[in-house]
Amino acid sequence: MTGTARGGSGAAGDGPLLLGVRHHGPGSARAVRAALDAARPRAVLIEGPPEADVLIPLAAEEDMRPPVALLAHAVDEPGRSAFWPLAEFSPEWVAIRWALEHDVPARFIDLPATHTLAWSKDMEGELGGGAGGGREGGVDTAGGGANSGTGAVAALRARPDAGHGAGADAGADATAGSDVEAETVAGSAVDVTPDTDRRAEADPAADSGGRPSADRSAMETDVRIDPLAVLAEAAGYDDPERWWEDVVEHRGVGEGDAFAPFLVLEEAMGALREAYGSGGHDRDLVREAYMRLQVRAAQREFGDAVAVVCGAWHVPALRQKTAVAADRSLVKGLPKVKTDMTWVPWTYRRLARVSGYGAGIDSPGWYGHLFAVPDRPVERWMTKVAGLLRGEDRIVSSAHVIEAVRLAETLAAMRGRPLPGLGETTDAVRAVMCEGSDVPLALVHDRLVVGDVLGEVPQAAPAVPLQRDLDRIQRRLRFKPEALERELELDLRKETDAGRSRLLHRLRLLGVAWGEPVASRGSTGTFRETWRLRWEPELAVRVAEAGVWGTTVLAAATAKAEADAVAAQALADVTGLAERCLLAELPQALPVVMQVLADRAALDTDVGHLAQALPALVRSLRYGDVRGTDTGALAGVAAGLAERIFVGLPPACAALDADAAEEMRRHVDAVHGAVGLLGDAPAPDHRDLRGRWHSVLRVLSVRDTVPGVVRGRAVRLLLDDGELGQEEAARLMGLVLSPGTPPGDAAAWIEGFVGGGSGGGMLLVHDERLLGLVDSWLTGVPAEAFTDVLPLLRRTFSAYEPGVRRTLGELVRRGPGERGSVTAAGSGIPGFAADLDPGRADAVLPVVRLLLGLDGPGGPGGVEEDIDNDLVGVAG
What we know:
The protein is of the alpha/beta class. Strands 6-7-4-3-9 form a five-stranded antiparallel sheet. Strands 1-8-2-5 form a four-stranded parallel sheet, sandwiched between helices. A hairpin with a 2-residue loop joins strand 6 and strand 7. The relative contact order is 0.06.
């Protein structure tokens, strides 16, 4: 391949073939493939970190399925990392695959990741970001994760063009020095934005283009808003994305025209850079200097038969003739950090800008469709949409598909577009298949326009030992990570499900949040768990970070649990950690955690802290039955905590304000539930815990210094446990609701007794004496005090179910003189009266006996009964 040969096809003179692309653009990807087929270069150079050269052959493996990403992380600080995502429609991926298929060397030529990560560390000090800083120009810095919003990422998001549509260069950072552009990392769909510097904003005289500083500053501001807007406006478009689709994405590559798109784009970028310069961003100049050095080295080895695939913005700089010494001086003395690199799976959602850390494109699923289909993309897209909607039980026929295609084509013609784009197809789907509703359209956007595709990498890819062990466990448990969020029900009585539960709990201890436990809808038994699962690409970084704790999941989780126990500040944190150790089945970590727990519990005298710690500790006792864990030591510590709470709770409840009283009420509820569980299997040295707890509640219920909300709750708990008769409960309520009690205190007592979701509404429904007391007290509250107690009452009764509130209203409507009247009861809601209705009760007895198996020849008394399953009388 010579410059003359390429010149006949429109290439720009002698030298390497420079293919300026839009990252993650299917049009650019198709054009790159056509240009490489036409030019047949002897080497392919690609914008990316050179450390990944050894990983390029893995792209030819059968198990490698994009989207994938190159992951670089600092060896000594794995959380300091950077991603270079690649999809099947990424020009870089197409170039890599072409080189492997044609046995042509492929190399990355961008600034090495060893400098990129070191620069990102320096940026934390410049921008005020800490160790948890977020993405900086596409780099996921230490511990920041994909979605952190501190440091440079906040400035990046504040910038108008930092994610504009599919074509914004999210990698071009507007912050000082954050030039780690790595467009394949930040995922700019087009690398056409000059990396500007805050120093350029502060110093308008910084003019590298020779123009007056005032004019230059104004022009730079326009480009920073949206670089493609300049070209689109020149072409008469008001939407740069529409312009790009019309001139590139919807344009086929004709025969003999393989190089034309790159010539036009290079000319346009050259004009932009001539007008706007580099924006004073020194680090962008350093990257381009390094790329020029790599291109020269390839030319010495292969001649001019070299193809370079890079962001279009860099093409004029790579074409520029500069001295080798000048380029070397720019890259000399750069900071370094020891780096490892590998392939990791990526997802379409992470390519989408809407998902936080991504590639700056809104519609990766649509782009993948455009790149993959051989012909008739609109018809095939509408067929996909119809299949999705029919799978969701929506009525969509082939006629809908035909009409949607016709409408999309008509809209494109009316809007002056060569082919229907995503906007036209979306409008057609909304009108024809969704009947104008955005609800099913949102499903189409989520499942198809964005997509749930999760890439795969081969087992031969480098990985830390912990990742290897995790992969082995996942294969053994048949537990494959998926990008689509789903719920998984686990039955811990099954070996495979128990293993999956252990793995998820251990990963959570390590900070790898693959799954989140949620409440089980079908069962409340301790043998069942429900998890919400979704695998995110950033979890590969978390696994690398967790590798410092051990080489296997079990060893790492054990070491991490022990370290967390020693470092925990609050007693509740240690008890929660003990519970997590039991769930994760970490027998080696549990003794350390229990020792720390015993030491902290002996020194902590705050009843609130003890009350917070006890429930998690007692819950852990339940797991011994299902998981086979010895919880004897745990029971002793829990019982000791309960004893100390019993002693300290009454004095701790004195002289509390409203907020502290409400918090103490929650502690009383939590301790009551914990004692109920602990009383089923008490420790050998701690007998009759329930009895002593009931004594504490009796003290709380009658002590005047205890806030009303706590006294009311104590009476309610005693009543529910059968330790207090209804007559006594009514007497205590009557005393509290007497005229001598301040209305505010009485309202607080009522809130404690029947408030919240504790079933207090049903108590009032079934005990009309209590309801009468509340009704009489409420009607007697003075007008000047009613406004003060109204918020408490509203909070109390608003928590009831609508049916309970309606029933209480019916009962109150009858009036106090009619509550015991059967006649009055018949005029209101059936079934509510002072006395039992024997007829209604007898009507259900046959069904109850049938369900309990008490009838038949073997039933009580050996008397056969003719069971009538007729329930007609039940509702009478």
